[in-house]
């Protein structure tokens, strides 16, 4: 049966991946994240200030810090916009595929089986992957860095997950932790939203990973500061802008408040309840940080990230791609995704459906932005409830 499923899944995976990459993404859309980045890199290479932007309009702005700018700078050396954009889209597409392979191996599944192609087919059918590629942004590479971090971190503490996953392992636990630190450090320098994931190595007193996660963004920014024109504007112009809550294309609770002009009397209790759910869920999950590091790492990383999406000043639905590692826990003996409410949450924040309606235009517009918010909040609640349920069962049956 698995052979039949694998044979059926690979053509679907290949066709969907190719279509989303070379048709949907190459065609592009009105939302274009790449042009902003390319223009900023071109300005840097010609000595013009990188952060010289108009912060009063809704057009995409260049948001990367000087360290991330230094990493991306080679793209600006190629004087062919279309070629660089196509290459960047392909690179992100391949990064997503490799990330899914790492996650498949991490949960003990063979790459020769149906899991990897099915994951590719499902992944390239989600709003997250479609919009990441169509908008030509860097989130696919960030998924790979996240997956590499989790893979190396978990394997460093439990090198032998199963016979298939352990074949060919040649790196020591210390080396794996250094790689994990570099991977999460690179993710942090590009998107600081990943910084809370340093909580994982902190709870295992893994100073190698923590050192890499902190040193990489610090060193890159120290090197970049005198090299990137107008680097100081990042602190004086961009950081204040980032502290503001925008009321468009923002699926966070703060975006919800700004869009509907909700009073603090209603908003703050909701925010505090969601924050408490994340915090309590993280504390309960600590019970498995030693006995089941795979379950703990994948579930806790997902809960931390979905908390960041929901509680920060900006959360965009396509960030949900970074919850793929948590979804992969479905292959473990215990998982939040062994219940239908968790899958309902995933459908809400991953489904690519358009909710535009001629009968209910306002409802359709609201759902287009906040269906992801509903899914994120539901996943937080389900994760907390499931973790508490596991804890109660373990207390009743300690053996």
Explain what you see.
This protein has 399 residues and is mainly alpha-helical. The protein folds into two domains: 1-242, no CATH class; 245-394, no CATH class. The chain is 66% helix and 0% strand. It contains 18 helices and no strands. It has helices at 2-27, 33-45, 66-72, 81-106, 115-123, 127-134, 139-157, 163-166, 173-190, 199-203, 207-224, 233-242, 253-260, 264-285, 293-311, 324-327, 340-350, 361-396. The longest helix is centred in the C-terminal third of the chain and has 36 residues, at 361-396. Residues 161-168 have low confidence and may be disordered.
Defining traits:
399 residues; mainly alpha; 2 domains; 18 helices; 66% helix; cell membrane; GT87; transmembrane
């Amino acid at each position: 049966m698995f052979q039949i499923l694998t044979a059926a899944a690979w053509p679907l995976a290949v066709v969907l991946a190719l279509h989303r990459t070379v048709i949907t993404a190459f065609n592009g859309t009105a939302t274009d994240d790449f042009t902003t980045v390319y223009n900023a890199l071109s300005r840097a290479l010609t000595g013009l200030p990188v952060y010289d932007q108009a912060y009063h309009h809704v057009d995409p702005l260049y948001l990367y810090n000087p360290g991330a700018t230094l990493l991306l700078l080679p793209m600006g050396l190629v004087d062919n916009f279309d070629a660089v954009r196509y290459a960047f889209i392909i690179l992100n597409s391949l990064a997503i595929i490799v990330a899914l392979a790492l996650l498949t191996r991490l949960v003990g599944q063979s790459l020769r089986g149906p899991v990897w192609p099915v994951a590719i087919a499902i992944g390239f059918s989600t709003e997250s992957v479609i919009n990441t590629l169509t908008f030509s942004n860097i989130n696919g590479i960030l998924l790979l860095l996240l997956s590499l971090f989790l893979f190396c971190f978990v394997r460093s503490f439990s090198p032998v997950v199963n016979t298939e996953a352990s074949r060919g392992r040649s790196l020591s636990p210390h080396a794996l932790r250094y790689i994990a630190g570099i991977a999460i450090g690179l993710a942090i320098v590009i998107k600081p939203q990943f910084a809370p994931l340093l909580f994982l190595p902190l709870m295992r007193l893994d100073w190698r990973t923590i050192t890499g996660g902190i040193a990489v963004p610090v060193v890159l920014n120290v090197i970049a500061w005198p090299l990137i024109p107008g680097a100081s504007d990042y602190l004086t112009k961009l950081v204040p802008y980032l502290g503001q809550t925008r009321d468009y294309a923002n699926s966070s609770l703060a975006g919800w408040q700004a869009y509907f002009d909700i009073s603090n009397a209603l908003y703050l209790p909701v925010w505090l309840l969601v924050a408490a759910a994340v915090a309590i869920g993280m504390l309960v999950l600590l019970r498995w940080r030693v006995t089941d590091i795979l379950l703990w790492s994948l579930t806790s990383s997902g809960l931390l990230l979905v908390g960041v999406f929901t509680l920060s000043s900006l959360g965009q639905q396509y960030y949900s791609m970074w919850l793929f590692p948590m979804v992969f826990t479905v292959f473990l003996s215990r998982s939040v995704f062994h219940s239908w409410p968790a899958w309902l949450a995933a459908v809400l924040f991953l489904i690519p459906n358009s909710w535009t309606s001629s009968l209910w235009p306002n409802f359709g517009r609201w759902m287009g932005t906040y269906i992801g918010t509903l899914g994120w909040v539901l996943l937080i609640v389900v994760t907390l409830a499931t973790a508490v349920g596991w804890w109660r069962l373990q207390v009743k049956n300690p053996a």
